[in-house]
Amino acid sequence: MPRGLRMNYNIKVSCSKERLKSIREFVKDTLSDYAIDEMEISQLVLAVDEICANMIIHSHGCDETQTIEIKIDVEPNQGIVFQVIDKGVSFNFSTYQEPSLEKIIETKKKGGIGLMLVKRIMDDVQFSSTDGFNVCRMFKKLQKN
Amino acid sequence: MLEIKKHTENEYLTLEIQGDIDASSSIHLDAAMEEALGQNPGAILIDASHLEYISSAGLGVFMSYIQELENKNISLVFYGMSEKVKNVFQILGLDQLLTITETAEDAKRIANEL
User: Fold this and answer.
1) pTM for the complete prediction?
2) Cβ separation of A20 and B59 shorter than 8 Å?
3) Residue limits of the STAS domain (chain B) (predicted)?
């Protein structure tokens, strides 16, 4: 990859949980072209997978006729912007309260920890809705080399 | 793709997990864990040497059984995890709540001590 050149990548997938694997491969393949630590790539793949799984399951009820789009903008020596874009029920991030691990164990609730992982992995996470489109924008700083 | 093989040796029930545990496949892990608990073994060992990937859906399954395992006095021990998979447990501090060891021998020894 040419040094310093800003690159954009995107993929559109149907809202099926079986498509998560191809989303992960897209993120991994895209980031593998850059000098990013393998462990860091794994974490970023996980964060995108978590957001996409949430959208596919909760915003689209796994309706395969609907799609979500994943965009990756890489600005070498600065950072990576990941965007997951869909049309659907928007996620209200302002009302999201992070559950405690104890509460999850006690209530045997299997969900709720995906966003915890995303917030730990990314440097910034924003949800927004405009003109019927919902965007989850995640930013990860890159180490300057 | 997720494949789970179950084998029992004395008081140890081992679930050998191969492939990816994500939101689409975690239901199979849940079924395997439920079945394993139903057999009331002394310990459930998770052979994670061929576990390629785990997301929150998989973590959630293990977390949802922590209380039942305690109530039934069954120990749960993981072994053979790759650094990448272990890191997912570490991000949330789950490596402090669950027992993660290196080898099958370690897992058996520690399961007896729990």
Assistant:
1) 0.93
2) no
3) 2-111
